[in-house]
Amino acid sequence: KLYSEALRGQFHFSPQRGWTNDPNGMCFYQGQYHLFFQHNPYGRGWGNMTWGHAVSKDMIHWKEIGDALHPDGYGPMFSGTAVVDSNNTSGFGKPGTPAMVMFFTGAKAWCQGLAWTTDGMYFQKMDHAAVPRVRTDNRDPKVFWYAPGNHWVMLFWVEQEGGQHSMQFLRSDNLKDWTKTSIVRGGVKDDRYLHECPDFFELPVDGNPANTRWVLSAANSVYAIGSFDGKTFRPDAERLVGQVGRGYYAAQTFSNEPTGRRIEIGWWQTATDKGDMAFNQSMTIPMELKLITTPEGIRMVRIPVKELETLRRRTIRSGAISLSEKSDDPLGETQAELLEFRMVATPGKSSAIHIDIRGLEVLYDAAAGELSCDGIKAKIPLQQGNLQLTVYADRTGLEIFANNGLYYMPVNKNISGTKSSISVTGGKCSFKQLDVFELKAAWE
Ligand code: FRU
Known about the structure:
Blueprint: E1 18-29, E2 32-40, E3 50-56, E4 63-64, E5 77-85, E6 99-106, E7 111-117, E8 124-125, E9 139-146, E10 151-160, E11 164-172, E12 179-188, E13 199-205, E14 208-217, E15 223-228, E16 233-240, E17 248-253, E18 263-268, E19 279-280, E20 282-283, E21 287-294, E22 297-304, E23 312-317, E24 321-323, E25 339-347, E26 352-357, E27 360-365, E28 370-373, E29 376-379, E30 387-394, E31 397-402, E32 407-412, E33 420-425, E34 429-439
Parallel strand pairs: 1-19
Antiparallel strand pairs: 1-2, 2-3, 3-4, 5-6, 6-7, 7-8, 9-10, 10-11, 11-12, 13-14, 14-15, 15-16, 17-18, 18-20, 18-21, 21-22, 23-34, 24-34, 25-30, 25-34, 26-27, 26-33, 27-28, 28-29, 30-31, 31-32
């Protein structure tokens, strides 16, 4: 049976066969979400980069429908974007049917190429590069419509003198002819700040549409917040980190999301190159991005999308509870494989919360203010005495969200046990909420 391999994530997208890395061209078009992905159709390792393609009504249940963009004279098809050209600025659309226009990097000629579709199934490439090579290795175009200026914006990664990672910004009226506008500089060489796979978008602060900021992030999810006038990004805050886990890379957000949410999926670098799996690597769950004001300044949070609730099969337990060292395990003899935990805990000053998820321990040490799992540690201070945690557990590991998404700690570790438990040491801990659900697989 397809998708039933021992290490196949059950609610994380992975290709039927072959390798995947970055998500590409994420877009809502003609009633469906489209996820393209860096695909090696011919092996479990990186290579032969091709854009694989899957569609979904809810970003959770994906149907893989065959590769969309194949290597050509410009080289293998490296990462990029897709946009819906609603005003038909490109002329690729038909009356009443706007085109989806995709940008990728041809990784031999090192230039940004263009392809389009008017049915989401058949793709045609423009016969010349949309943007000529800017410098060796320039890649990963992100394109979006800048409404206040009535034009398109592209940015992509380019290495400058001294190995300085930079983002080149360009503009266009028709998606075909591009002019350079500005460059944003990142780190040098091994300092991978602003290295590869840019994403760039505007978000309201604290949900207030009259107060917005632009977010520029790159492949390792380190991000900057600032302002943008259609040509130049001016950061107010740089090198912000919201991802404290392991194996999260090259995330992208959907364009044209119908409810106006900014939703991100990244490459989850899972330990799946083992045994007789037909595939290797996967994507994360979809997460909504928001900006909130914190005592340290404006920060981005990641919140698992509400569509994930459709995966709930049964409630293992729910509601408030108070635990001490002597308490019985509130999960009892529960046996389940796919899980969602939601908790708001108020730990005593020196107590520790141990959440054993099928043999993998998530530990919160209140005295140290530290959350740890499988060797990953992050300082996570209580908020008004509380720790909020949401955890999703699949075969390939955990995705942990702390303090309402201010910290995202993915843990790529294959887990195979079925028993879970929750216990407290060093005192007491009251939980305002301790909800645990068993989930269904997303593959039909
Ligand atoms: C990031 C990356 C991109 C590139 C792609 C190639 O993981 O190196 O910069 O476009 O992967 O597969």
